[in-house]
Amino acid sequence: MRIAVVGTGYVGLVTGTCFAEVGIDVTCIDIDVNKIENLKKGILPIYEPGLEEMVMRNTQKERLSFSNDLATSIQGCDVAFIAVGTPPGEDGSADLKHVLAVARAIGQHMTNYVVVVTKSTVPVGTANKVRTAIEQELEKRGANIPFDVASNPEFLKEGAAIDDFLKPDRIVVGVASQRAEEVMSKLYKPFLMNGHPLIFMDIPSAEMTKYAANAMLATKISFMNDIANLCEIMGADVNMVRKGIGSDVRIGNKFIYPGIGYGGSCFPKDVKALIKTASENGYEMRVLKSVEEVNENQKSVLFNKINNHFKGELAGKTFAVWGLSFKPKTDDMREAPSLVIINKLLEQGAKVKAYDPVAMKEASHTLGNTVEYGKDEYETLIDADALLLVTEWPEFRSPNFNVVSRLMKDKVVFDGRNIYDAAEMREKGFVYYGIGVKQ
Ligand code: UGA
């Protein structure tokens, strides 16, 4: 089989590379000349564990190639994935201009039957717009080439994307013809070894599945953040409550970790987009509106604790920040709660010394030199009035606390992810604040 993947961002690059890994002939296409030149040299635009090696291996085996030329690359393909960005517009709705531009380009240049698949997260109804855009271009050319559209939402998590793609829990494909279903079945056959299902459905349901999945996960997080905040007020410990409810399989023990709010490029964007889609169609997503509101508030929870502890006197204080990316194992800074916390501290005249294992370069695009970047996590602690644990990178889980206390001016820890044990920290002589744990 031959496929084209248009868009070499996070989803497109992982998708293309993983299909090549199982032996499919893949061309990844992007209009960004620099990006493609770099990819040809093995330089990736994102950090994702294992991806660089996989790109190199498949490029060498000539199963994976990169191109700026959609017109040529689309010819002879069985499937064309559209994996370009859908940035949120001013009003929160997904902007489809890139998706539809790709659809038009496919319509202008395709020479044979192809299944055109939306892989980006797109609102319900987008596949139909893609179909119309392609039809219009074919009509202009006077070409009578059959094609199908399909929706194949992506469920991969940053930091675990390769595993998620190669061993998916499920693959969801929305189709409107038997022919497209057959092509997609053949394409995904190598990924079904672990017995998880390939679920075919109609196109709008597939499009909705993606939003419903992310919205449900975001809801779990905001719900737990609300419970955590109440735990603090009532003198309960959310870590215990989490274990207590998580062992009920109907609830499940995943995605019930409270923290400083969800971030990243997906949950915030998709929750907003679903609220918007609903309101445009005369329906109000009341639960999701609250999910969003709780999340916005939660980003300030750690700052409020700091402000209370220091009685509002933050000017001139130095804060060590461990972790900047929105979650571990990624350099993604989009909607990262660290930015909200750091900006609030800076506004109060505090000094911030930050360290992140991979996201410092990315963070510097936004934070510039308003913060000092440490060589390692310990260096940030020198003369710090408090330590803020913001992203739960594995290397922060078990630091040498003797060294930590020696380096810090004041032994105060604000743990935004509850990775340390409150009782142990207090035994070690730290003033410890977690999320939803007794102070
Ligand atoms: C999310 C979904 O998990 C993927 O299934 C989906 O494919 C992806 O969005 C997407 O739409 O492309 P991702 O944004 O990479 O993946 O990150 P997650 O691991 O889901 O974490 C999202 C946020 O939730 C992070 O800020 C994380 O810190 C937070 N979180 C997660 C919590 O606060 N508590 C939890 O228990 C779990």
TrEMBL record:
Keywords: NAD, Oxidoreductase. It is an enzyme of class 1 (oxidoreductase). Its EC number is 1.1.1.22. It catalyses: UDP-alpha-D-glucose + 2 NAD(+) + H2O = UDP-alpha-D-glucuronate + 2 NADH + 3 H(+). SMART domains: UDPG_MGDP_dh_C. Residues 320-422 form the UDP-glucose/GDP-mannose dehydrogenase C-terminal domain. Pathway: Nucleotide-sugar biosynthesis; UDP-alpha-D-glucuronate biosynthesis; UDP-alpha-D-glucuronate from UDP-alpha-D-glucose: step 1/1. InterPro entries: 6-PGluconate_DH-like_C_sf, NAD(P)-bd_dom_sf, UDP-Glc/GDP-Man, UDP-Glc/GDP-Man_DH_C, UDP-Glc/GDP-Man_DH_C_sf, UDP-Glc/GDP-Man_DH_dimer, UDP-Glc/GDP-Man_DH_N, UDPglc_DH_bac. One of its GO terms (molecular function) is oxidoreductase activity. This is UDP-glucose 6-dehydrogenase. The lineage of its organism: Bacteria, Pseudomonadati, Bacteroidota, Cytophagia, Cytophagales.
